[in-house]
Amino acid sequence: MSVHTLTLSQSARDRGAWRRLTARDSLVRRVDWLLLLVALALSVLGCLLVWSATRNRTDINNGDPQYFLVRQLINLAIGLALAAGVMWLGHDRLRSAVPLVYAASVAGILLIFTPLGTVINGQRAWLAIGGYTIQPAEFAKVAVILGMAMILAAQVDAGDREHPGSRAILQALALAFVPLGIVVIDDMGMAMVMSVIIIGVLLASGADLRWSIGLILAGVAAAVLVWALGILDQYQLDRFGAFVNPDLDPAGAGYNTSQAQIAIGSGGLFGTGLFQGTQTTGQFVPEQQTDFIFTVAGEELGFVGAGGIIVLVGVLLWRALRIARGASDLYSTIIAAGVVAWFAFQSFENIGMALGIMPVAGVPLPFLSYGGTSMFAAWIAIGLLQSVRMKRPLSA
Fold this sequence. Notes:
By secondary structure, this protein is mainly alpha-helical. The protein is built from 17 helices and 3 strands. Helices cover 68% and strands 4% of the residues.
């Protein structure tokens, strides 16, 4: 065979491979690349902001300015691997494993009340294992979305009903209230996020609107009752008191919020420059690498940079909503909508508490705040969204 013939044969194979790669039903065309790139951009930006917030913190970085940066990059790498794994398995194949995922997540939350549990910032919400801390409630959010989706969509996807019936709704709520009831004991922020996820899932399922309205009213009544009975810990009462009246205790419960607002306000339009923030360098804002990571962006990247983060979050939510709208079945729709409710409320709560428009509740900013468990759960959610998109009809 001549060299010319071999060249033509190789060229034909290359064209065939390219056509398969770019075919309408190929993996490359089915992946939402904008969603993936936005999530990756937020994660990389978060690594830089975490680095800025911790490089001078010799009290926690073991004398290594890159300590938190390296760990967060490792967290990101593991998160990407988890997302790829979920995409490879597919949310449909995960459906049969949902009971195991749910049981494992509930068991993980219960373990925080054993000697493995540890208290951080007044909250007993972490497990200390081998020098690492894990927050099981982050994975419970994924389990609640998958579990409720499986129950609510069972009869509808089978063609037996147009909307989930009362029995299915009660079963789904019972499933969700188990982890919620455990988490609410000592982690009000996570309980708030889970509550919004539950309502978002119900709305997406097509359940009668009265169920969602009833849950909201029941939640308000429960909050009033908990407050009246004095069930909340003192630090939780102080946080809500400082939110209602920021001048109540500016050196105590209101300190975090007041310093956060100073940091964001000092950034001006374009910020002081990455690693140049005086509030950040001076370590005035507590927990700046986790709950108050947005203050680093506000000070060092300014209004433009902080606003850019909000725009990126908005684009991520827009893509996720498009995926939910184009889903091929109710199970897929509920999963995507649950993720949207999760990311939307948690982002609003985190940024809102930094700006002083929401109470300090101790929830991380998805993709940006430091923390392995939060990063892993967020990227698992991205994997679920991509899996839903890859299953959609070609015309969607």
